[in-house]
Each structure stands twice: as structure tokens, then as C-alpha cells.
Design goal:
The chain has 281 residues and is of the alpha/beta class. The chain is built from 12 helices and 8 strands. It is globular, with a radius of gyration of 18 Å.
Length: 281
């Protein structure tokens, strides 16, 4: 069983928790597999990659990047790309991509293997682009221009993503991370994200957002941002990806906060280890 992300989060009320959350898949892939290496060719290959990367970086959160899995799958299956562009509806490329059986099976195999390797020591979190962002990425992969998206399209995307999450709900997952991007803002009051919020609550998974939450912060267990909102008792992740790699001073953490850092793909290993030591000092 994976530890629940919510149980590892620090709280402003004083409960201690994780200190460093890393996004490292691009850097680890280049370092361990080379510029053109792909860990997603099979579950055993991914597990070998994951174990090496996890041992090297020792993050407080184990992340499986679902968006990266689908980028790999689409690149290796051009017939699927053609099918994704077959209908004009804005949400169709993402719908067609996420209903494909092959990547769902691979995701389940990867989650099962990774959770077994962790032995309950670290929460396992599935990371994916937030609904609007994944709609844009899927349209681009299908050879389309940027789609015009309304609340219905975004809610539809969240429903497709929730269905994907349910397909692995029997496995040891501790949380979900939705990534709007460093400065991306969540949509409206959060109604469009309700299918994902409901899934996370039903399976007692922690729910995290990387981006600006707007009026929907209360729907998440933690928000990760460069500018932290007022939070009540919400755990907050300070995104220091910019100042960390620029060798700039880091803001100290207050109670209920942790550092989040994305490691640049081209970073030098010595610099990475030095900067991780700064975060953990």
C-alpha cells in the first residue's frame, strides 16, 4: 500500500511533513538513458529507470509522469495520432488518446511495479497535465492548431482523465498532481475539475495542483506555485525552480510549506547535487 500524500504534507498548524518535491523525469531520462532514450517501452524498462533515478535523487515524493507516458506512446504509434485528428470536436484528440488500451495497460503495469519497489516508504503520485493543458497538448499531437476551449470541453477532459484514474484505482496510489505549468491559472471556480476532485476524494488520494488556483484552492490538498496564496491549513509548495538553478537565494520555508523544484533537462549532475543539498539544508 502506498502512503497517502495527504499524510506526508506539512501543515501550518504545525504537523511536519515532506520537505522536497522534485520533478526530474526529463533530467533523469537524459542522464540515465541518453538524449533519445525512452523508459516507456515496457514496464521492466521503466522500473529499472525509476529505481536508478529514485536512488540518485532521493525525492520525498515518488512521481510517475502520466503525461510523459502518453507522449512516448503517441510518438511510437502514428496510427493513433491519425485517429486523434479524425473528428473536429475540441476534446476528441484527448478522448481518443486516453481511451487507447495499450497505454492504460502499461500504466497499470508500471504503477504496480513501482509501488512494489517503494515498499510503502514514499507516497506514489501520478502526475498529468491539468485538463485545459492536456487538451492543448493532445490537439498539437494530432496536428491541429490551438483549439477554442470552453468550460464544457475542459469538464469533458476532466471526465476522460477521471476514467483513466479509475482504471488504476485498485493499485497503490497515494495522490494525483495536476500541472497547469509554472504560471498557469486554473479555470473558473473549479467546476470543470470536479470529476477529478471527486475521484481523488473517493479513493482517498491526495490532490495537488501546480499553478495558480484562483477560487478553487479549497478543492486541493496542496497547491504548488511561485507565489503562494493565503491558505488556512492548506499545505503549500514553494516552486523554486527559477531561483534554485540561477544560484539565487531561496525564500525560507514557513510552517506548512515545502520546496518544489523542476530539474532542467540539461543540468549537470554536480550542479544538481549541490542544489539539492541547498534545498535539504
Amino acid at each position: 500500500m502506498s502512503p497517502r500524500l495527504v499524510d506526508d504534507l506539512p501543515r501550518p498548524s504545525g504537523a511536519p511533513g515532506l520537505r522536497v518535491w522534485l520533478k526530474s523525469s526529463g533530467y533523469a531520462r537524459r542522464l540515465l538513458l541518453g538524449e533519445d532514450g525512452d523508459p516507456w517501452e515496457s514496464a521492466p524498462r521503466y522500473l529499472s529507470f525509476f529505481i536508478q533515478a529514485h536512488g540518485l535523487l532521493r525525492p520525498d515524493v515518488a512521481v510517475v509522469d502520466v503525461g510523459d507516458l502518453y507522449r512516448s506512446w503517441v510518438a511510437r504509434h502514428p496510427a493513433l495520432t491519425a485517429e486523434m485528428g479524425a473528428k473536429k470536436r475540441p476534446a476528441f484528440p484527448l478522448k481518443r488518446m486516453l481511451e487507447e488500451a495499450g497505454p492504460r495497460k502499461l500504466l497499470a503495469e508500471v504503477v504496480e511495479a513501482v509501488s512494489a519497489s517503494l515498499r510503502g516508504a514514499t507516497p506514489l503520485v501520478l502526475a498529468a497535465p491539468a485538463p485545459r493543458r492536456w487538451l492543448m497538448q493532445a490537439a498539437e499531437a494530432a496536428g491541429r492548431g490551438a483549439p477554442e476551449l470552453d468550460a464544457d470541453a475542459i469538464e469533458g477532459a476532466a471526465m476522460y482523465m477521471a476514467d483513466l484514474a479509475r482504471s488504476v484505482s485498485h493499485l497503490a496510489i497515494g495522490g494525483l498532481l495536476l500541472e497547469e505549468g509554472v504560471d498557469g491559472a486554473a479555470d473558473g471556480d473549479g467546476a470543470a475539475y470536479r470529476p477529478l476532485v471527486n475521484v481523488a476524494r473517493h479513493y482517498r488520494w491526495g490532490l495537488a495542483l501546480r499553478g495558480r488556483p484562483g477560487r478553487m484552492a479549497e478543492d486541493f490538498d496542496t497547491v504548488i506555485s511561485t507565489a503562494l496564496p493565503e491558505s488556512g491549513d492548506l499545505a503549500l509548495g514553494l516552486d523554486v525552480s527559477g531561483p534554485l538553478w540561477a544560484a539565487a537565494p531561496l525564500a525560507p520555508l514557513d510552517a506548512g510549506q515545502f520546496y518544489f523544484a523542476e530539474i532542467p533537462v540539461g543540468a549537470e549532475p554536480e550542479a544538481v547535487l549541490q542544489n539539492l543539498a541547498r534545498l535539504r539544508a
